[in-house]
């Protein structure tokens, strides 16, 4: 799109990607309005930036020239219906990202784990190097105070979701694949199908571009013969000490440094390592929240795949040896919970105590074959509780010497905030 519309309305503007897109369009002179079903940290962030958000879906504002909707917004949403009746064009979030990507040198970060952290790290490195990237990140990055970093129109760093093949709408010159594991089982019936999406993304990177990945990873190696671009092994990058915990974040840092250098060859590796050493991380990525009145230490984390749960708990053990670790886990989607039931149970059993909240249904699911009680029964010392109030009360009773981690992609973070509030 060579000329942006002058007034755009975003339906589902509180979504982490949609709220970043709203900021990007506003930074380019577009008048933005939007709506969402409830207030959230992202709608508060938008309000602070002067972007109008209506809570609840209803009337479409006058003068709107385009609406953009998130994946979570159905076709019968009243604002989408009103747009069609008025002949106002609609675009999905990922379609709009694709349009922006086509007009910029794009660094797209995909993979099952680590996308958000790697995207934030790349943006921080490039910003510090004076490259002035525009970035959309899947969380609020502490270093920017936002999920959006304003910069040049022709350098775009973006977190790329593989779900529903959204990744394929982008046009990256630098493609980062952090890793590949089966996820989003409501869309990808097998690892092989997911790998085919990734293979198509690899094949689409132009010959002058670069693919940043771990070619020794067997799940990745099988798709690399499709590459026309050079493949860069991020595991060969040397990074220094990080603020972030865990070996998985060192892998994230290696991928980010390799990608930043590929996108901006003038980058000094020494400067890149310095930026990484001072990277503070993102909202809900092992984020310290405070202490309870009893003296337990509270963290919040977004982990919602069994591998991420396991790696986070292992890293917490390394950081806090000898301390009791208690997890309140909010499963995300019945389909994911069912597909990885035993893997989740085994990962949660790494904690001294695990409490499982009711499953968060982020999108409409036909079957509900499992519950939080099903997951609890699959573990050795996991229990289920059916309300956040019960979970909060149980966690509040934990004594000093305990690390409490609220975990999951739903709104379990609210419990962490209540515990230390």
Name some characteristics of this structure.
alpha/beta, Rossmann fold, Protein-Tyrosine Phosphatase, Chain A, 3 domains, six-stranded mixed beta sheet, 18 strands
Q: What integer value in Å does the Rg equal?
A: 21 Å
CATH superfamily of the largest domain: Mur-like, catalytic domain
Number of strands: 18
Distance between the termini: 46 Å
- Give the integer mean of the pLDDT values: 95
Per CATH, the architecture of the largest domain is 3-Layer(aba) Sandwich
| Main sheet attributes: strand count, strand direction, barrel closure | 7 strands, mixed
Query: In the residues, how many domains can be counted?
Result: 3
Give the strand order, joined by hyphens, for the main sheet: 8-7-9-6-10-11-12
Helix tally?
15
- Apparent shape: globular
CATH top level assignment of the largest domain: Alpha Beta
CATH topology of the largest domain: UDP-N-acetylmuramoyl-L-alanine:D-glutamate ligase
Low-confidence stretches: none
- Helix-strand makeup class: alpha/beta
- Secondary structure: helix percent: 25-40%
Structure description:
- By secondary structure, this protein is α/β, with parallel strands linked by helices.
- The chain has 3 domains: 7-92, Rossmann fold; 104-277, Mur-like, catalytic domain (UDP-N-acetylmuramoyl-L-alanine:D-glutamate ligase), CATH 3.40.1190.10; 287-420, Mur ligase, C-terminal domain (Protein-Tyrosine Phosphatase, Chain A, Alpha-Beta Complex), CATH 3.90.190.
- It is 35% helix and 20% strand.
- It contains 15 helices and 18 strands.
- The protein has helices at residues 16-27, 41-48, 78-85, 93-102, 115-128, 191-204, 218-221, 247-263, 269-277, 306-319, 334-339, 341-348, 372-377, 388-396, 413-420, and strands at 7-11, 31-36, 52-55, 66-69, 90-92, 105-110, 134-141, 146-149, 155-159, 174-177, 210-213, 230-233, 287-291, 297-301, 324-329, 353-356, 382-384, 402-407.
- The chain has a 7-stranded mixed sheet with strand order 8-7-9-6-10-11-12, sandwiched between helices. A 6-stranded mixed sheet has the order 13-14-18-15-16-17, sandwiched between helices. A 5-stranded parallel sheet has the order 3-2-1-4-5, sandwiched between helices.
- Strand 7 (134-141) and strand 8 (146-149) form a beta hairpin.
- The model has no long low-confidence stretch (mean pLDDT 95).
């Amino acid at each position: 799109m060579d000329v942006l519309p002058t007034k755009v309305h975003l339906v589902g503007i509180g979504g982490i990607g949609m709220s970043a897109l709203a900021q990007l369009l506003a930074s380019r002179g577009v008048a933005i309005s939007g709506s969402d079903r409830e207030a959230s940290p992202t709608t508060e962030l938008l309000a602070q930036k002067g972007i109008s958000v209506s809570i609840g879906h209803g009337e479409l504002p006058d003068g709107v020239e385009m609406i953009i909707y998130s994946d979570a917004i159905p076709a019968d949403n009243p604002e989408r219906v009103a747009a069609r009746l008025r002949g106002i064009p609609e675009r999905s979030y990922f379609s709009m990202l694709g349009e922006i990507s086509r007009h910029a040198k794009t660094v797209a970060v995909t993979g099952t784990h680590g996308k958000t952290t790697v995207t934030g790290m790349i943006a921080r490195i490039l910003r510090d190097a004076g490259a002035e990237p525009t970035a959309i990140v899947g969380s609020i990055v502490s270093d920017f105070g936002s999920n959006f970093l304003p910069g040049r129109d022709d350098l775009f760093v973006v977190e790329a979701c593989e779900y529903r093949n959204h990744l394929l709408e982008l046009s990256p010159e630098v493609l980062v694949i952090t890793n590949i594991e089966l996820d989003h089982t409501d869309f990808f019936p097998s690892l092989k199908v997911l790998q085919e999406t990734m293979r198509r993304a690899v094949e689409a990177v132009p010959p002058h571009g670069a693919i940043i990945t771990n070619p020794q990873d067997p799940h990745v190696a099988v798709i690399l013969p499709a590459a026309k671009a050079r493949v860069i092994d991020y595991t060969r990058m040397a990074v220094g000490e990080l603020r972030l915990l865990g070996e998985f974040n060192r892998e994230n840092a290696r991928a980010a440094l390799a990608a930043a250098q590929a996108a901006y060859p003038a980058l000094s590796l020494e400067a890149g390592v310095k930026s990484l050493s001072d990277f503070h991380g993102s909202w809900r990525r092992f984020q310290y929240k405070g202490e309870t009145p009893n003296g337990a230490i509270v963290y919040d984390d977004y982990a919602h795949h069994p591998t991420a749960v396991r790696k986070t708990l292992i890293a917490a053990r390394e950081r806090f040896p000898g301390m009791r670790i208690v997890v309140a886990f909010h499963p995300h989607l019945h389909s994911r919970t069912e597909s990885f039931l035993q893997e989740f149970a085994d990962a949660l059993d790494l904690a001294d105590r695990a409490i499982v909240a009711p499953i968060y249904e982020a999108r409409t699911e036909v079957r509900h074959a499992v519950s939080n009680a099903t997951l609890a029964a699959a573990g050795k010392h996991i229990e289920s509780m059916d309300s956040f109030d019960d979970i909060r009360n149980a966690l509040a009773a934990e004594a000093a010497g305990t690390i409490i981690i609220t975990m999951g992609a739903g709104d379990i973070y609210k419990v962490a905030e209540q515990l230390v509030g």
